[in-house]
Amino acid sequence: MTGLRARQMALRHERILDAALRLVREAGYDAVRTEDIAAAAEVSVGTLYNYFENKGDLLLALVTVEVEEVLEQGEAVVAAPPPDIMAALDLLIGGYYDHSTVYLTKELWRTAMALTIQAASTPFSARYTALDHSLMAQVCALVAALQQRGHARADVDAGALGQVIFNNLNQMFIEFVKDEAMTIDALKAGVARQNAAIARLLSRA
């Protein structure tokens, strides 16, 4: 019975997230009410609140799914990076960017970022920051992996350089979500040009 109940709860959780994603992508975050999401998910509003305290929690859940999937995708890159530093950076960061609009639109990313600033002391902001730190740690791990394999200079602080690379890719992503006209390809090209300079400095040659 416990196993069945857990599966039912998981299915309701997934149904609510699917409904939220569909509605906010179609109508926009501000236009969608929790009542609309509950109806689309075929659950009561009370049931929805058993899973999520408010609409912001739903948005955070979508951001979490997004980041957890790219982290899983990035694990394979860190485990077996291409020997070329630039190719390794492109593969990891390009994967982040290519996946960034699978679930969330630019408008939803802007809303999530705004919530972290407007309510900096809330659990939402803390969780969003923790997800950012996980991505940063993965970039640092890639630099360390390149060093361990002899593809990059060993006398460079992998943690510090990984943070620099992440801070730049994160800032460029913010510029991307602010600019409705910017494409993923343009974002990737801009970051690749910047990372090329870092790759030359990190190269053992």
What does this structure look like?
- This protein is mostly helical.
- Helix content is 78%, strand content 0%.
- The protein has 9 helices and no strands.
- It has helices spanning 2-27, 34-41, 45-51, 55-79, 85-99, 106-118, 123-148, 158-178, 184-202.
- The longest helix has 26 residues, at 2-27.
- The protein is elongated and about 60 Å long.
Q: Quick gist of this model?
A:
The protein is an all-alpha fold and 205 residues long. The protein is built from nine helices and no strands. Helix 4 packs antiparallel against helix 5 and helix 6 packs across helix 8.
The number of distinct β-strands equals 0
Largest sheet: none
The helix tally amounts to 9
Task: Spell the H/E element sequence.
Answer: HHHHHHHHH
Structural class: mainly alpha
Q: What share of the residues lie within helices? A: over 70%
**Averaging pLDDT over every residue, what do you get?**
92
Strand content: under 5%
Q: Quick one: overall form?
A: elongated
Low-pLDDT parts are none
**Alpha carbon gap, first and last residue:** 62 Å
Gyration radius, in Å:
19 Å
